[in-house]
Design goal:
Length: 696
């Protein structure tokens, strides 16, 4: 593993001196060409040629053939095919992968390129490795060592240098357009770069027969989350067709025949095959009764399999490991966890659409249990804080090994996913929905108590690190995370959704303190913060195209190559690096205030995501306002598909450069169960404001 470059050169010289019938530089040039190639298919072709070189002895020929076969599989097999050889072994076994190439072989530096990538993506993908400082450091250091050997042997290999921290610019920066607001120019370029990355995946990875992208169904199904600004915000036929192809294929697999996974797994993995396919299907095909009925069916599983009455007479999940037919019996898995709401996202959307009373009563009975547990101070949990888990069957707010905030003991499988605050805004969104559907104030109690604790923390920042599990610790972790596009922490996202839907000013003080990346404000300071966040995001998106595309080996981590370059091993905020803010783009263009896994979009712009920018500034149930800028030189025809306005009559108005412009038809009629479409013409290169409000 630690063969020096000098030893490799000595071995190369030995091969060259033994060459018969070829010029001495022929073998050398082939090895150099293979090592310096930045395209793996090109490398495969060169190795195929090298393998037929008549001067190679049997040993070197076998090594070349073995390496060529590995590279072929890298190009043509599943993205993590190499895991099969290390399955059942310690995580570090990936570092000893047998390429069939000796340590002193001149081909060894090429193997180091693949060893480094396997180590890097294992670190990026594996949460148990990533959150263990000792293991994370070993993986990072070993990967870097491999890439350094590659860079030393093959200085033209830009892929290895990218992993070592060299930023590789890609694409072009659009020319400035006079009159375009800064936010619009920044957003436009990011939308177009995101679309280019998505189209790369469709063109180069999507399989014609199944729609898969090579990372396995369980990882591929999560890709739509970072597609959301383009996929859900606009209308790109190629991208929409690709998503529909994948999701329709995914939900017809045998293990989902009954409507949910037939094999028991933890909820994050058991639910993703339904949630991460049904939700985009329900959004993209809203008139399909098939998907709505399937969403309603989640309520049947909840009633018949997943939940029961605990010893307090309350409804709760009996475990966070379950399938379509049973829950896990193990005591260490007998917890109702925050993330269990992930299995119910399709049901929540179906309830919101249909108002089904039976399903609503069931969901509310479960949420009542969480409201009650939040109010209690129990097992060290502060009153007013949602617990990480509720133990079955006694209904206590409790976790593993006496820690209320840890349903999984440290070092256990998926520990970092389930530890508090986990995906807390997914359950606070469910509480918000329950309030808007029923009008009951009780569902706001957890939001109010945690908002007060978060506000108290911001006003009185502790001088020392808070004790885990304490109120101060909770107040700190309720912060939205700048660099992690997830629902971990970030209570503010739910509060922003609630404000948008109801117009309440109750949480304004807290919302104002959390920053415009998460709460879009239209005042001067808010716009400056928003533009600063967009600049950071664009800086990350302008470099390292391979890190978003060809280098990715875990399709649920397409936006996370930068994680490998972080300066420490915590990865909470990716110290020293910035991740593209794809959720910010989604919030800007759709008017939603949170992540798309439980989408609450105000609008879809029925036009391609090119030469355009959109900023929704108001998106309540009765009013809508958006700023738009079209960068093209000719007027643009499009429609706004309005998704959040409650039934009624509305009037639309358009202003261009502050002056009213007459619409061909300014009437908007919203009927129950249907989305209205407003067609209009967007003028070229002028700031336009679209406003929709109730008819007097």
């Amino acid at each position: 593993m630690n063969t020096s470059f000098k030893a490799c050169l000595t071995a190369v010289a030995s091969v060259l001196l033994s060459a018969v019938g070829f010029a001495a530089d022929t073998v050398e040039s082939l090895i150099a060409q293979a090592g310096n190639a930045n395209d793996d298919r090109e490398r495969q072709v060169v190795l195929e040629k090298l393998a037929t070189h008549s001067s190679l002895d049997d040993t070197r020929r076998k090594e070349t053939a073995a390496l060529e076969e590995y590279v072929r599989r890298w190009n043509e097999s599943g993205l993590k095919f190499y895991n099969a050889s290390t399955r059942g072994k310690p995580d570090r076994a990936i570092g000893d992968y047998d390429f069939g190439v000796a340590a002193d072989s001149p081909l060894r530096p090429i193997c180091e390129l693949y060893r480094g990538r396997m180590l890097a993506w294992n670190l990026i993908e594996n949460s148990n490795v990533r959150t263990n400082p000792k293991e994370a450091k070993w993986f990072k250091d070993e990967a870097v060592a491999s890439f350094r050997r590659v860079a030393e042997a093959f200085p033209k290999n830009t892929v290895a240098r990218m992993y070592l921290g060299d930023a590789l610019p890609w694409g072009t920066t659009p020319e400035k357009v006079e009159g375009a607001p800064e936010w619009a120019a920044l957003q436009r370029e990011q939308l177009e770069r995101m679309a280019e990355i998505i189209r790369w995946w469709i063109t180069h990875r999507q399989r014609a027969n199944t729609g898969e992208f090579g990372g396995g169904w369980g990882d591929d199904c999560e890709m739509w989350r970072w597609w959301s600004s383009v996929l859900l915000g606009f209308e790109d036929p190629k991208i929409i067709a690709a998503q529909l192809k994948f999701s329709r294929s995914a939900v017809t697999r045998p293990q989902l025949k009954g409507g949910f996974n037939t094999e028991i797994s933890d909820v994050e993995h058991a639910a993703e095959d339904t949630t991460d396919n049904l939700v985009p299907l329900m959004v993209l095909e809203p008139n399909s009764e098939k998907w709505t009925k399937w969403g309603l069916k989640m309520g049947d599983f909840m009633r018949d399999v997943w939940t029961g009455k605990n010893e307090r007479g309350q409804l709760q999940f009996k475990s966070f490991y379950f399938s379509a037919t049973e829950t896990a019996p193990q005591q260490q898995r007998a917890f109702d966890v925050i993330a269990n709401v992930g299995a119910l996202h399709p049901a929540l959307l179906a309830w919101q659409k249909t108002g089904d009373e039976k399903l609503g009563a069931q969901i509310c009975a479960w949420l009542d249990t969480w409201v009650d547990a939040t109010a209690r101070a129990e097992n060290g949990k502060p009153a007013g804080i949602l617990p990480a888990s509720i133990r079955w069957p006694d209904g206590a707010a409790a976790g593993a090994e006496g820690r209320w905030w840890e349903p999984v003991k440290p070092g256990g499988y998926m520990h970092s996913y389930y530890i508090w605050p986990s995906v807390i805004t997914e359950i606070t969104d469910a509480l918000m929905l329950a309030h808007t559907m029923t009008g009951k104030e009780s569902y706001l109690a957890p939001l109010r108590s945690m908002a007060a604790i978060r506000l108290k923390h911001l006003k009185n920042l502790p001088s020392e690190t808070p004790t885990p599990g304490s109120e101060a610790w909770c107040g700190d972790l309720l912060a939205p995370r700048r660099n992690a596009n997830s629902n971990t922490g970030g209570l503010v996202k739910t509060l922003a959704r609630f404000k948008a839907l109801t117009g309440t000013t109750e949480f304004d003080e807290l919302l104002a303190l959390e920053g415009s990346e998460f709460v879009i404000r239209t005042d001067a300071a808010g716009r400056q913060e928003l533009e600063a966040a967009l600049r950071e995001s664009l800086g990350a998106l302008r470099v390292n195209f391979p890190g978003f595309t060809s280098e990715v080996r875990s399709t649920d981590r397409c936006m996370r190559f930068v994680q490998f370059l972080a300066q420490d091993y915590a990865f909470d905020d990716y110290k020293g690096v910035m991740q593209p803010k794809h959720e910010l783009l989604y919030r800007m263009v759709t008017g939603d205030k949170n992540a798309p896994r439980f989408p609450q979009m105000a609008v879809r712009w029925l036009t391609p995501p090119q030469d355009i920018a959109a900023l929704v500034t108001e998106a309540s149930a009765t009013r809508f306002t958006a700023e738009l800028f079209h960068f093209g030189k000719e007027p643009r025809e499009l429609s706004a598909e309005l998704r959040q306005l409650r039934p009624g009559s509305y009037k639309a108005s358009l202003t261009v450069g502050g002056k009213p412009v007459k619409l061909a038809d300014d009437r908007v009629k919203v009927e129950k169960g249907h989305f209205s479409k407003l067609p209009f013409t967007l003028p070229a290169q002028a700031l336009t404001v679209l406003t929709i409000q109730p008819t007097p």
